[in-house]
Amino acid sequence: MVSQEARREPGRKGPKPPIPLSVLTGFLGSGKTTLLNRILKDPAMADTAVIINEFGEIGLDHLFVDQTGDGIIELSSGCLCCTIRGDLVTTLENLLRHLDNGRKDRLTRVLIETTGLADPAPILHTVMLHPYLVMRYRLDSVITLVDAVNGFSTLLEHEEARKQAAVADRIVFTKTDLLQTPAARAEFEKLKHRLGTLNPGALRLDAQSDEVQPSKLFDAGLYDPNSKIPDVATWLNEEAYAANTQGHAPSHGHHHDGHHHGHHHDHDHDHDVNRHSEAIRAFTLATDRPVSTSALEMFLDLLRSAHGPKLLRVKGIVHLAEDPDRPVVIHGVQHVFHPPTTLEDWPDDDRRTRMVFITKDLPEGFVRKMFEAFSGALLPDTPDAKSMTDNPLAISGFTSPVR
Ligand SMILES: Nc1nc2c(ncn2[C@@H]2O[C@H](COP(=O)(O)OP(=O)(O)OP(=O)(O)O)[C@@H](O)[C@H]2O)c(=O)[nH]1
């Protein structure tokens, strides 16, 4: 699987390396087509297949994308995340078929542009859950465009926008050239602060600067094709989560459901920003203690079966008790986890188990307690482990298989 790719020597026979697949998302009018047009001119984008999802009876977006020909595939008459996932599977299969039968020479990456209202998770699931596609494609980056002018109010008002921001590996600010007034710039600061809570680990880029290039947008996955040693530190970016936790005192972790702040424009305090987005949290768990394989499986199984929809994104590297020299990498989007990957070695001296979480309506304390019950204090009758296994709701989670 992917770890084979990391070990592959040029010219050696074996399964073809998986093709990186990225998702370009962002709210309505955030500038997806504009950015796409710009990066498609870059020679690094040659041999990229772009799948554009239209929503509405007559697809128009492809008319505005400059490049024509084989590379652009339009999927219309529905939204990828809802009704036309089958079309996406067929399209991805056809691309492989063309590659395998020689009708297409090279396919270096696939980029899927979603509609502005799409939840990216089901699109990622389409690939992760497909037994063949998951072998031939690997999830590389989720790139989320955020309008610097309207982004703050969009985040406040639209759940889809918050989800798009929360699952991103890259956040690209668009329209920063329009931040002309002090008020607009102050609003932009609030937007950045809010994004820091939703998703502290994503690399931020400005569409108006030269930094928005394929090399910065892509290759955000664990595996850099140019390097044999996976860059786990960059991939997890756990320091960003730590800074985020320190920056937000625990007393701000709760929200006031009974009190809705209808007007949010002139409030800058965390409690006032938005009661909804407070439900999305980003945090990290770490432990020095090796984790047994069964404990890891139970923890993940319970999490994803009982709380799957609340796990917007989970990434981690785990020190297994049974195989301490070969860490296991986990990666999940909601209830769907990639098959865990075993690395041949630790990427650096840090051999702790580390996991980063972006959750919705799932408090950090709950996940932490559960993790401690299964990992740290795994002795059978510690109070935490006991309370977990005594919980009938928790037990029901054990029944579904870990992929
Ligand atoms: N000033 C400025 N305008 C921008 C920028 N990026 C995009 N726009 C403009 O914003 C409008 C919307 O951009 P699009 O690229 O069509 O946005 P989109 O996300 O593809 O839109 P939908 O497909 O409707 O979701 C267009 O008028 C663009 O010219 C930017 O960085 N600065």
Structure description:
- The chain has two domains: 2-228, Rossmann fold, CATH 3.40.50.300; 280-399, CobW-like, C-terminal domain (Hypothetical Protein Yjia, Chain: A,domain 2).
- The model is unreliable at 1-12, 56-69, 246-277, 378-386 and 388-403 (pLDDT under 50).
- The protein starts with a helix and ends in a 7-residue tail after the last helix.
- The radius of gyration is 21 Å and the shape is globular.
- The strands form two sheets. Strands 3-2-4-1-5-6-7 form a seven-stranded parallel beta sheet. Strands 8, 9, 10, 11, 12 and 13 form a six-stranded antiparallel beta sheet that branches.
- With 403 residues, the protein is α/β, with parallel strands linked by helices.
- The chain is built from 17 helices and 13 strands.
- Bound molecules: guanosine-5'-triphosphate.
- Guanosine-5'-triphosphate binds next to helix 2.
- Keywords: Chaperone, Hydrolase, Nucleotide-binding.
- InterPro entries: CobW-likC_sf (IPR036627), CobW-like_C (IPR011629), CobW/HypB/UreG_nucleotide-bd (IPR003495), P-loop_NTPase (IPR027417), Zinc-reg_GTPase_activator (IPR051316).
- It catalyses: GTP + H2O = GDP + phosphate + H(+).
